[in-house]
Amino acid sequence: MTETVVVGAVAVAVAERLRAAHIRALYGAGRQSEALASYADLRTRLAGELGVDPGPELVALHGSVLRQDASLEPTPPPLPPATLPLAPALPTPVTELIGRTEAVAAVTELLARERLVTLTGPGGVGKTRLAEEMGRSAAGAFPDGVRMVPLAATGGVEEQIATALGLREDAGASLEDALRARRTLLLLDNCEHVVDAAADTVRRMLTAAPGLRILATSREPLGLAAESVWVVPPLSQADAESLFARRAAASAPGFTAAGEDEAAAVAEICRRLDRLPLALELAATRVRALGVRGLAARLDDRFRLLAGGRRDVPGRQRTLRAVIDWSWELLDDEERTVLRRLAVFADGCTLEAAETVCGAGVDVLDPLIRLVDRSLLTMTDGPAGEPRYRLPESVAAYARERLTEADEARAHEERHHAYVAALLEQAGEDLRGPGQRAGLAQLDGESGNIRAALARSVERGDAGGALRLALAATWYWFLRGRWSEARRALGAALGVRGGAEAGAEARLGVHADEGAGAELRARAALWQEGFAVLAGEAGAPAPAPDTDTDTDTDTEISKPSPRLARPTWFLAHAALTAGEDLPRSEALAERALAEFGAAGDAWGTAAALGTRSTVGLLRGDLAGARRDATESHAAFRELGDGWGQLRSGYILAALASITGDYAQAEELHRGGLASAEELGLWPDAADRLTGLGRVALLTGDFAEARALHERAAALSAEIGLALGARRTGDAGQAEKLLRKTLAWHREVSFGPGPALLLAELGFLAEQRGDAEAALSLHHEGLAVARESGDPRAVALAQEGLAGAHALAGDPVRAARLLGAAHRAREAAGAPLPEAERGDVDRVEAAVRAALGDEVYTRECGAETDDFPDRAGS
After folding, report:
1. Number of C-alpha atoms within 13 angstroms, CB side, residue 395?
2. Using one digit for the tens of pLDDT, what is the confidence trace for 698-711?
3. pTM for this one?
4. Which superfamily is assigned to 2-72 in CATH?
5. Ordered DSSP codes for 112-165
C-alpha cells in the first residue's frame, strides 16, 4: 500500500512539473486562455482520478497567469557544461501549429508517466512538428534541458546524440556516464531508418540515466519493453481544411473558400490526401495556378501534381512521392510484395481477404503486421467487429503504380474479382436466413470492393463476370436501400458488349454456354427494372445494352424458369411498393408463386405470399390478406429471415389496426421497429414508425403521433402528419402536406393511394364550408376507390360524399350514402373502429338533426342501384 502511494505521488509530481512547463510555454507564446484551460484540465483529472488538488506551486502559477505576472516572461535554461558547442535546442517555428492541441495534452500526460514515448504514424503526418512543440512546452520540467537529435543515415546513432549534447570523444566518458545524473528530455527524430541501432542506444541510455526521458519519432516502433507508442493521427477534417486554407492563402493572397463549390473542393482535397499536413501543404502551393476546383479534379495524378515543394525541409519531404519512396526503400521484398498487392482492394480488407488475394507465393501475415507497424497500413474495426486493413489513399495510389511495374495488376485484379464473387454468393444465402444481420455487416465493409470489382469487369469487357457480380449483389443492395446504385450497376453489366462470359464464368467454376448467358441477362434485366421502379427512375437512361442480346422483360417472364422466379417476384414487389401497376404486380406475384412451388423454394414462396397479402389488403380482401400474411410470417420465422418477418408483420399490424385492435397493432409495429433497427433496414424502420404514429393518432395521442411521424422522415410519414394536423385543427398544414403527397401518388400512378388523400382533402373542404370543393374531391376519390376494388376505400368516399351533400342541403342523399358505406364495411369484415368514427359521427349528427331519427333510419336502410357519380350530384 505504501509503495502504491509513493508511486502515485511521484506520478503527480512529474505530471505537475510537465503541466507547469506547458502552461508557461503557452503563456509565453501569448496564449493565456489556453494556459488557463491547461491548468483546469489537470485539476479536473487529478480530482477525478486521484481525489487530490494541484500542488501549491501549480496553484501559484495559475494565479500568476491570471494576474499576467511579469515574472512569467521566459528565461533560457542554463546550458549543461560541455567542451563542444551545443546543437540548437529546438528550431524556432515559422508557422502556427494547427489542430494539435489535444495531441500535445495527450503526449504531455503520457510523458508524465513513461520514460520512453515513441510518436509513430505515416510520413507527413506531423510527428517531427509535434515533437518540437512537446519539447518547447515541457522545457521547464527538465533542468538540464531539452535536446533534439535529427538522426541521419550516415554516422552512428550514439555519436549523433553525443554531438547534439556537446560531448567530446576524448573526454573518456561514455554517453551513459554523461547522462547518468542529468534530468533531460531527448527528442530523437526520424528513427525508422536506423531503428535497430536507435533501439539499442535508447535501451542503454534509459538503463543508465534515471532522470532521462526520451520522445522519439519513427514510422515504426522501436520495439522496447519500456516503450509507449502514441500514434499521431491525421488532422480532423475541420483542422485539415483550416490548415489548407491558411497555407493556400499564404501561397495565393486573397484566396478564400467562402463559396459552396470552393468549400466542397477543399473538403475533397483534404479527404483524398488523407488529412496529412505535409500533403496538404504541398497541395496548397498549387492553388495559385490551378484554383481549388482544378486541384481537386487532378488529384488522380497526385504524384506529378505535388512534385514541387518547400526548400526548407529535408529532401524526403519535398514531394509526395519522396515521402512514400522513403518508406518503400525501408521495406524488404515480402513487405513490398504484400503492399503493392493490397492496392487491388478499395476501402480496405480483412486478413482473410488479404491472404486469399495477395498470398500467391508469399506468407501474408507477418509482412502485413510489419506494414501496420511501419505506418503504411492502418488497422481499424470493421462493421462486423473484425479487424480491417486499409492503405491511405496516397499510399494506395503509389502501390498501384508498383503493382503495374511488377506486371501483377491483371492477375491480382482477377483474384480480387473471384474473392468478391465468392463472398457475395455466400452472403446471398446468409441474407435470407438467420445470418442476415452478420451478412449485412460483413458486406457493409465490402461495398468499395464490390464496386471496384464490378467496375474492372466492365472496363475489361467481361460481360459474364460483371453480370454474376451484379446479380450476386442485388439482395444486399435492396436491403440497404441502394436502389439507384443497383440500377446503374446492372445497367453497366448489361451494357458490356462482347463474348467475354466464358473467361469469367470459368474463373467462377461455372460452365458457360449461350443459354446460360441469355439467362444471366434475363435475370439482370428483371432486377434492373425492379430497382428502376423502386428508385423512381423507370424512365431514366441506363448504359446501352448489347443490341445482339437485348432482353425484353415481359417476354422473359413468360418463359417458365425456376431461376427467373426470384427476379420476377422482385419486379412484382417493386411495382407494388411504388404503386406502379397493381394488376401487373398481382400477375407477376402469382406467376412467381407457381414457379416457387414447383421448385420447392421455401423462401420464394414466403416472399410471394407476402406480396399477395399486400395485394389482398389493397383490394379489400381482408380474409385473404390475413391468410397469406400469416402463412408468410410463419415461413419467414422458420427460415430465420428478419426482413421477411418485417414485411409480413407489417401487413398483420395493418389488419389489426383496421379491425380496431390497436394494442396488437402497436405490439407488431414495435417488434418490427426493433428488428429493423437491429438489421439497419432504415426504410422499414420508417414504415414501422409511421405505423406506430397512426396507432397513436387513432387512439388520441396526437403529440406522440406527431413525434413518431417526424422521426419516420419518409414520404409516407407526411400522410400521417397531415392526418394529425387536420385532427388538431391545423387545416392549412394538413392541406399542404396532403396535396404534396397526392401529387407524388398521381405522378407514379399509385392506384389506391389517392383515395385516402382525396377523402382527407374532401373532409377539410367540408369542414371549412366549401361544399362544391368537397363534392369534387370526394367524387374523384370514389372513382379511384372503385377502380382499385377496395370496398373500404369506396365506403370512405361515400362517407365523405355524405358530409358534402349534407352541407349542400341534401340530407336524404347523405343518409343513404352513410347507410351504403356502413353495409360495405360490414360485408368486408372491417367495420369502422371507434377511434376512426370522428368524421362519420359528425356527419351523422348533422343529418339526424335535419331529418329526425325516424326518417334518418328509414333513408339509411334504403337500397339504391348506384350511388352518386358526377351525373347525379
Report:
1. 30
2. 888 888 777 776 66
3. 0.69
4. Tetratricopeptide repeat domain (1.25.40.10)
5. HH-SEEEEE-STTS-HHHHHHHHHHHHGGG-TT-EEEEE--SSS-HHHHHHHHH
